[in-house]
Design a protein that fits this description.
The protein is of the alpha/beta class and 236 residues long. It has 8 helices and 11 strands.
Length: 236
């Protein structure tokens, strides 16, 4: 899974970009100015940066110049139509591409895929296999952190292990007895009710509407599974 840093001082643009990118399976990290973007970049394993030019505190050109001192990660500028001079300056400083606002989501995603493909083919970075993502949920098995739309979510050890089991095999249905045996490492006596309680707690913490879950699904009479919200299924 690729990690993408989105930096723009307009919150609606950041929100829209996160929706488009996370629907494609990317993990996103928001920032509202260049200084904040550099802080995020320093602590996260970022594979691509979407960077606005005109921002308070630190503009995109200054941030990119600092970024280029430490990394050759792809940078795509987010520019307005009347910023032609800034586009040229950005490309000269080290930007790899630019997208003009208002952007076309299809074009943006195509440019993101192209830059990531080139970056990886040149050996620029490695995708961590211990990070799982589904919808807006991200599970980092190295740090044992779970996030929803980038915000940390506190899970109990049992909840964490159930979530990891489901996210490791999206679409696969796990009967309650199987979940209990794998997570508790015990014979599944009373498994159905115990697992159901933990699933309910996971939904309360990770679903926007626990009564109508998008990701943690129940398959009637069979068990539970993790499902991509953009996918199709016959569960409820």
């Amino acid at each position: 899974m690729y990690n993408i840093l989105i930096c723009d001082d307009q919150k609606d643009i950041v929100s829209a970009l996160r929706i488009y990118l996370e629907a494609e399976g990317y993990r996103t990290f928001p920032a509202c100015n260049g200084a904040e973007a550099l802080e995020v970049f320093a602590r996260e394993d970022i594979h691509l940066v979407l960077l606005d030019i005109m921002m308070p505190v630190m503009d995109g050109i200054s941030a990119m110049a600092k970024l280029r001192e430490r990394s050759n990660v792809p940078v795509i500028l987010l520019t307005a139509k009347d910023e032609d001079t800034d586009k040229v300056l950005g490309l000269n400083v080290g930007a790899d591409d630019y997208v003009t606002k208002p952007f076309n989501p299809v074009e943006l995603l195509a440019r993101v895929r192209s830059q990531l493909r080139r970056y990886m083919q040149l050996g620029g970075g490695k995708v961590r296999e211990d990070v799982l993502t589904l919808g807006g949920i991200t599970l980092d098995d190295r740090t044992k952190e779970v996030r929803l739309d980038g915000n940390p979510v506190a899970l109990t050890p049992r909840e964490y292990e159930i979530l990891k089991l489901l996210m490791q095999s999206p679409g696969e249905v796990f009967p309650p007895r199987s979940i209990y045996r794998r997570v508790w490492n015990e014979e599944p006596y009373g498994a159905e009710s115990t697992v159901a309680v933990h699933i309910r707690h996971l939904r309360e913490k990770l679903e926007y509407n626990p009564a109508e879950p998008r990701c943690i699904k129940a398959v009637w009479g069979q068990g539970y599974k993790a499902e991509d919200p953009s996918g199709k299924g016959n569960t409820k």
